[in-house]
Amino acid sequence: DIQMTQSPSSLSASVGDRVTITCRASQYISRYLSWYQQKPGKAPKLLIFAASSLQNGVPSRFSGSGSGTEFTLTISNLQPEDFATYYCQQNYITPPHTFGQGTQLEI
Amino acid sequence: EVQLVESGGGLAQAGGSLRLSCAASGFSFSNFAMSWFRQAPGKGLEWVSEISDSGDNTHYADSVKGRFTISRDNSKNTLYLQMNSLTDADTAVYFCAKWYVRTDAFDIWGQGTKVTVSS
Hints:
Distance between the termini of chain A: 34 Å
Number of helices of chain B: 0
Order of helices and strands of chain A: EEEEEEEEEE
Number of strands of chain A: 10
Structural class of chain A: mainly beta
Number of strands of chain B: 11
Distance between the termini of chain B: 40 Å
Oligomer: heterodimer
């Protein structure tokens, strides 16, 4: 199975900051990488698909990049509603649809 | 409105069974593959099982293979997860999600249903 590793596991930032989360795959996954946001007690929400494509309705301050084995999620101009946990997921070789361990973004 | 609503969670004894349901609305359910995920308390997301749009193909995580069965009734727009031989490790919130092949991602998620296994 492909393993996904996110860093950092947690991150403290302030409103207005720019933050970057990294996701590494244990083997090549092309651009089959999605990012999800999850708030406590809520379902995950798709933010980015195909490594860099913004899902409909997601603010443009979210952006994704990368290919192969290394990917990043960048959030510019952090807003209060962005404080959540973020997960990357590979969908290149499935099953299983493996996730990173998550990055908790805190104020 | 595109929506997935899970139900059927609750308290089960170790070794017991539960059947989860996921009711879909607002989209052509029969045209999309579906998956179940779970999240143990304080832990990350884990894919559990998937089923093709027709129901002909299914896959399972190693952790549930032989114990869980995914199925669907396209006439009722409903996805199911039959969970047998439950253990403490199955305690989690279970989510259903719709697979969108054009994005190669899960674009719609239910709100989740909580399963607690008591020994």
